[in-house]
Amino acid sequence: MATRVCWLGHACLLVESDGKSILMDPYFTGNPVCPMKADDAKADFILVSHGHGDHVGDTIPIAKRTGATVVANYEISEWFKAQGLTKVHGQQHGGGFQHAFGRLKLTLAFHGSQLPDGSYGGNPCGLHLFLNDGTKIYNAADTGLFGDMKLIGEEGIDLAILPIGDNYTMGPADAVRAVKLLQPKKVLPIHYNTWPPIAQDAEAWAKQVRKETPAEPVVLKPGEWVNV
Ligand code: NI
Ligand code: MN
User: Fold this and answer.
1) pLDDT, tens digit, for every residue of 32-51?
2) Is 3 helix (H, G, I), strand (E, B) or coil?
3) Ligand 1: distance of its center to the CA of 141 in Å?
4) How many angstroms separate the alpha carbon of residue 1 from the centre of ligand 1?
5) Domain limits of the chain?
6) What's the CATH class of domain 4-227?
7) 31: CA distance to ligand 2 center in Å?
């Protein structure tokens, strides 16, 4: 397997898999903990989980500069087209599609999805990637805990990416319960320590995960990588 993931702070992630660069929720500009500028980001694909500004982020300028294909739910994909993007692919919850990097399935997420200009952004998504090298990554994105995570886990997860920040998403305790439902091999916490309302102790959370589950927690600093 040749897949690695870089956490760029908040929910901004870069996946490199078999020569393809896949950005998820590319929030560079205005992200107080992101170590990289949007102008330096590489992307063949940009996956957007929902319409909030901290997830749509710099999708439009990065897509225009790199020619990346943008994938999101149908409503957000239409909004991107209205903003002038042409390489856009819309999907919907439960639906998968074989992209050049592998199959992407959109999953449930319990959250909101209003776009930055107030437009309707459909329903928020999680991202389940079945990469060409066999690696399976589930990015829950912004969500509360839900029991159907058990169904998502049944498809196999090498790396689960879970919010632990609380307030806007699951907090640490519910994220441990999510690990029990998903049964991933590794788990990476995100969506915390960006702003004071979502300040969390990720090391303490990792200790709890080790104590209560067989999963291996991976705590990164913004800009660090994990091999999946
Ligand atoms: Ni959000
Ligand atoms: Mn968010």
Assistant:
1) 999 999 999 999 999 999 99
2) strand
3) 8
4) 31
5) 4-227
6) alpha beta
7) 11
